[in-house]
Amino acid sequence: MAPFTPPTLADYPIQGIDVSHHQGAIDWQALARQPKVRFAIMKATEGGDHRDKRFAENWKAAKDAGIVRGAYHFFTFCRPGREQARNLIKTVPVETDALPIAIDLEFTGNCGKVPTSDELSAEIGAFFAELNGAYPGKPIFYLNQQFFEQYFKGNEARFPDHHLWLRSIAQEPHQNDCRDWSIWQFADNGTLDGIHGPVDLNALCPSETGLAHLFPVLTAN
Q1: Which SMART domains is this protein grouped with (predicted)?
Q2: Please, are residues 138 and 167 in contact by the beta-carbon 8 Å criterion?
Q3: 70: β partners
Q4: pLDDT the model gives residue 101
């Protein structure tokens, strides 16, 4: 197999990161000077009561640095969707210049429950029913290929309309050259000035028009 080459700025001009408290204190001004950090999706909440201890700090500092921000919720399979939505509402401000709310759907780091397709779609539906359109834009669903195949492939209509944020480390996703996905997480070991240690790297699909309006300076060049 040929070695993996990360996506270039020429092919994927809008790139960014996702972070949580695991990255520690972040120098957002240093990040903003780097062309590969146009957006940052930061962990806000998990389950029904956990809040990331650095979310409020990161949310403000990223905006002050001029980086487009988004918040994500780690969706646990062991708490009702409505409880999780209420946790998010208490934590994440509603701001029109932010990315839509993202939810992280994965087994890694989750509780031991493996929901059925019916259970998962019902709880995600309850989650967004509780949000009741409070945050602008259709949500972003973070999945890896396995989770997509197990729950979403052929069943997309059972879930709220969404942008797909696909984790595919070290290989191009198989989703029709990005016509079916919006954000690609292509690395979990990136190195950037302003962050001590590894960080996840992402790229926005160049044909994703639903989110590109948040990047007027970059898309105009």
Answers
A1: Glyco_25
A2: no
A3: 41
A4: 98
